[in-house]
Structures are given as C-alpha cells and as structure tokens.
Amino acid sequence: MTFFTRTALPLLAGVSALTMTAALAEPTQELIDAAKAEGTLTTIALPHNWCGYGDVIAGFKAKYGLSVNELNPNAGSADELEAIKANKGNTGPQAPDVIDVGLSFGPAAKDEGLLQPYKVSVWDSIPADAKDAEGYWYGDYYGVLAFGVNSDIIADAPTSFADLTEAAYANAVAIPGDPRSGNSTMMTVYAAGVAKGGEAGGDALNKGIAYFKGLKDSGNFVPVDGTSQNLAQGTTPIYFDWDYNLLAMRDTLAGNPPVEVVVPSDAVVAGVYVQAISAYAPHPNAAKLWMEYIYSDEGQTLWLKGYCHPIRFNDMADRGVIPQDLMDKLPPAENYAKAVFPTLDQQAQAKTAVADNWAKEMGIQ
C-alpha cells in the first residue's frame, strides 16, 4: 500500500483537474433535506479526544442542525462490527449508522454484508489504495504508532523499542488494551515486531508478541490498559498509542505532568482508519451527510487540528487551503519519513497471528 506524508505535497498520480473541482463539491440540497428529516445520526467509538472528534461532531451539528447520538466512545473496531450485527433489525438508539474502524476491519465488514456503499462527492481525491472501489469503505485519516512519556517520572525518555527493554523502565510500559480487539494495540505489537526485524504480516506480529512477552518477563510491562489518567498518575508512565492521541493528551494535560511524545526510531508504523455506513443504518441519509462533512475541506482540516493526517492532505495542500498554524503544531516532518503502511493482506495475517498466539504467549485469557 502506497501512501504519503505531509512532506509529499504534490498530488498523487492520477489526480486530475476534475479532482480539483470535485474537491470543492458540496452535498446536494436533496441529501441535506433528507438527513434533516431523519434528525439524528448515531455514531459509535468516537471519543472526543481521538483525532479531534469533539470538534468534528460539534462542527457537523452546527452546520446541519442534526443531533448526534454517541454510543460507547471507548469501543474498539471489533466492537463496532458486533454492534451492527446485534442491531440488524433494530431502528432504535442502539443501532449505529456509521463506523470508524482500522483498515483491516473495512473489508471484513464488507464481506460479512454489514456495510452499504456510498461514494462521497470528493471521491476522486481519496487515494485509490485507501478505498474500496465500490464505495463500501474509505480511509479518512492516518497516524503513526508512538509512545507518551511522563517526564516527571522518567526524565530520560527512551527513543526506541530497544530502549524500552532496559532496566531503567521497569514497571513502566503499557499498551492501550487487548490487541485481539483493538486495532491500535494490534498495530503496536506489529510495530514492535518490525523493530525486532520481523517480516511483514504474521511474522512481524509474532515477533512483536515475543517482544512484549520479554517485557512482561523482565517486569517492564504493566498489565493494565494505558490511558492518559494512568500516565498522569504514574501507573503507566510510558504507554503506546497513535501519535494524534498522544499529542492531544499532551495538550490536555498542559504540563501537569509534562509529557514527551516519541516516535520510536527503530519502527515507524502507520495506520489508516476507514469510515463506512452500516447496511442497517436507521438514518442512512444522515450517515451520508456525515460522510460528506468529514471528507469536506472543513472536516479534513479538523482532522489535522486533532493531529491526524487527513486522507485528502495532498489535494488540500496543492490548493493551499491548509492553515499554516496547524502545520506548525505537528511533529517534525522527518519523524514520519520512515513510515511504513502495512497492506490489507499483512494486517489480515497479523490479526490471525494475534488471535492465535497473544493469549497463549502472554499467559492470559
């Protein structure tokens, strides 16, 4: 899979003048009216501090006057698919209209018949290798795996996966949750395997499991979920997550305690998250209008404000519509120069490996 970083400003191959026109398109009044008649959008797994979702949701409500029913903000990608399955015949408030999941979950959901296709008006400016050709799912933003460090507790921050094995970081390292159900955690294990020389796919994932088993055996791994609260309190003074989550956490803590965000030098693994509409969405027009909003220049700019790299970054940069003050708040571009994007096949292999081996190797249920 070939993607781009914010250093790659030229348009991707194949993006034409037609795309430039499409990038400025607006949803039809017919769609807006139909969505307003439904009145509500039901989302799931969208914490407000994730990728700037608080501002994104507020912007959507302010622009179109719809209410947003937010389900289980802390759910993982697998939980989102289960919510669709559990509510196939339900048009009530527990049935999600839209999902935001890790890249590998998009094709799986399509194969299970859980999604309906919809191509947003800016479809042509979304890179071809970041979307389903039929419009069942499409990438919206990406980031890289990094770790946050509580500088009050750990003055000399590690810079790599290799550093984290040192005795100085005993009882310090955590991950966001269970890699069998959360994409960010699975990709953290994958990145550790890349740092250990693992080949792509299942090999990298299994080497990552071996890495974390080593951290557990040495006492460096903390077997609780890494969160901003646990980091601030010192329970997990180092924990992994996507860079945009950690940068937002750093800003929220405002120096109490000071937090350093580190992109590990020995493995820079990027991950794309994708959007999709439930095949059983109770509010299908509101779902389509939501897609139009988050892929518009306005919505994509809000991703960047939340420290995510929007999928239409190159197109927007070429047209000069990205505010410079947002660019200035991002980490140095060289931090992303070595980023690799695991393919769908590689992620599928990783999902199989983590399901088969994580619990067995880590001694958990």
UniProtKB/TrEMBL annotation:
Its keywords, alphabetically, are: Signal
Q: Which SUPFAM superfamilies match?
A: Periplasmic binding protein-like II
The residues forming the signal peptide are 1-25
Q: Which GO terms describe its cellular component?
A: outer membrane-bounded periplasmic space
The record ties this protein, via Pfam families, to: SBP_bac_6
Top-level lineage group: Bacteria
List this protein's GO terms for biological process.
thiamine transport
Q: Could you cite one Gene Ontology molecular function of this protein?
A: thiamine pyrophosphate binding
**Gene3D superfamilies listed in its UniProt record:** Periplasmic binding protein-like II
Name listed for the protein in its UniProt record = Iron ABC transporter substrate-binding protein
